[in-house]
Amino acid sequence: MTTPTPATTAAQAIPADEGAERSAALQELANRLSAIDDPWEKLRVAASATAPGRISLGTSGQLTGTAIIEGAHQHNIPLRVFTIDTLRLFPETVEYFDTLESHYGISIERVHPDDQELDRMIRQHGVFLFFDSKAKQEYCCEIRKVRPNFRALRDVDVWVTGLRRDQSAFRADTPAVQVTQIPNLDSSSDEKHTLIKLAPLIDWDEARVRAFLKEARAPLHPLLEESEGEWFFESLGCVICTTRQARWEPPRAGRWRWFNESDAEKKECGIHLPPPSHIND
Ligand code: SF4
User: Fold this and answer.
1) Distance from first CA to last CA of the chain, Å, rounded?
2) pLDDT for residue 5 is more than 80
3) What is the distance in A from the centroid of ligand 1 to the CA of 240?
4) Residue 209 scores a pLDDT above 80
5) Nearest residue to 28 (alpha-carbon basis) of 215, 158, 201
C-alpha cells in the first residue's frame, strides 16, 4: 500500500463533475465489482479504475477495517485511509491509529467535527445529550460522525467500509457494492455527491476476520483483545456510548446500552443509514 499507481486511462473514465456521465461511469464500475467474488480482486479493480486518492477506506479501528488495510498491504493496492475522530474516542483508539501507521507505513487522515456545529449542539443540548433520547443520540452522532464522514468523502469515488452482514440484524441485507449519494455540505444547493460504497468483506464473519489478522500478525485494537471474564468489547465507538457486553448478548448490545429496551434493533450512528433525512442545519 505504497504510492498510488492506478491505471491512468481507467481513472479518466470517472468524471469528477457530478452529473449523468459520472453516475453512468460509477454504475458501470459497480456492476463490474458486483461480478467479482474475491475481495482483494474487487479492491484491486476499484483502485485501478479510480484516480490516485479517490478510493478511501473509512475505519474506526475495528477488526474489519484493519483486515482491509492488511489485505490492501499484502496485495499492494493503493488505498487512502481516514478515520473520524469524534473527540470522544477511547485513548486506546487514538493510539491504535498511530500503531497502524507505523506498522503499515501509511498515513491515516483524522477527520474532526466542525467546531461551530459542535459548539452549537453543546450550547443547545449539553455534552451528554445522547442520554436524553434516541433522536438526540442520532443528532450527536450526526455532528460528531456523519457530517465529518460526508466531508471526508467529498472528493472520493469509492468509499470502502468494513461493514459485515453478521454485525447485526439491521446490517444483514447490506449489499457488497452500491452506488449511493451523500450531501455536498460545501454546496448551498441540494447538490449530492455520487459515489460507490464498497464493503469487500461483507460476507466474512468475525471468526474469519480474526483468523486472517492472526495469520498476518496484524496489530489489533487493544480493547478488542481483552475481556473481563465473560465481558468484552465487541464494537467500539465513543467513550460512555460504548460498554463491554456479555457473550450471550446480541451484537452491538454494548453500544448505547440505555436504548437496549426501546431501540435495540437500530444500533447505528447514522453513517450507514440512508442519507440523510435526519440532517439538521
Ligand atoms: S457515539 Fe455517543 S458521543 Fe459518539 S457521536 Fe454518537 S452519541 Fe455522540
Assistant:
1) 38
2) no
3) 8
4) yes
5) 158
Question: Which atom, in ligand 1's list, is nearest to the CA of 237?
Answer: 1
Q: Where are the domains of the chain?
A: 19-225
| CA distance to 71, 163, 266, per residue, from 167 (Å) | 20, 8, 12
| Long-range contacts, 275-280 (Cβ 8 Å, 24+) | 275/150, 275/180, 275/181, 275/182, 275/183, 276/142, 276/146, 276/150, 276/182, 276/183, 278/135, 278/138, 278/139, 278/142, 279/142, 279/146, 279/147, 279/183, 280/139, 280/142
145 C-beta closer than 6 A to ligand 1 = yes
**pLDDT of 9 strictly over 50:** no
pLDDT tens-digit series, residues 98-140: 999 999 999 999 999 999 999 999 999 999 999 999 889 999 9
- Residue 87 CA to residue 175 CA, distance in Å, equals 30
Catalytic annotation, residues = 269
Q: What is the DSSP letter of 143?
A: I
pLDDT at 237: 92
144 lines ligand 1 (CB under 6 A): yes
* Distance of CA 13 from the midpoint of ligand 1 (Å): 38
Ligand 1, atom 1, lies closest to the CA of 238
232-254 tens-digit pLDDT: 898 899 999 999 999 888 878 88
Determine the length of the chain.
281
pLDDT of residue 3 exceeding 60:
no
CATH class of 19-225: alpha beta
Phi, psi of 209, deg, nearest 5: -65, -45
pTM: 0.90
The grid cell for 1 is 500500500
